[in-house]
Request: fold
Amino acid sequence: MHKHVLIVEDNATDVDVLQSLLKRLGVSYTVLFDGRTVPDLLPELPVPDAIFLDLELPGVTGYDILEAIQNTPDFQDVPVVAYTSHLSEMSAAREAGFHSFLGKPLKFAQFSAQLENIFNAQPVWDGRDR
Reply:
C-alpha cells in the first residue's frame, strides 16, 4: 500500500533527513517550508497518511497549524506528529492533541517501526535523549 506524508518544516537539513528516511521506506511526501501557508493550502492538498509538523516555524507555531488541521474536516483523522528538537515540548504537544511526538534527530533503526505504528493509528511518543 502506498503511503504519503506531509512535512511542514522550515529547516532544510531536517527536511533532507526526513526525506531520506521516507525514501528508504518507499513513502512519498510533500514539503511545505512556510507554515503560514498551511491553513490556506489544506483544502487544496491531497489528504496524507500522516503529517510531520515542526513546532517552531517563522511567524507561526506548530500548535497554531495543528488547530487549523483539526478544523479542516478531511484532515481531522490524519495523525499529526510533532517533529522537533525541543524535547521539553512533549507534554504540551500531548495536551494540544498531537497524535505522536518524534524528537530530532531521527534514527533510521527506530524510525521504520515508529512510522509503521503511526500509520496504524498507534501513537509514538519518543523524546528520549539520543
In short: The beta strands are 4-8, 28-32, 50-53, 56-57, 60-61, 80-84, 100-103, 125-126.
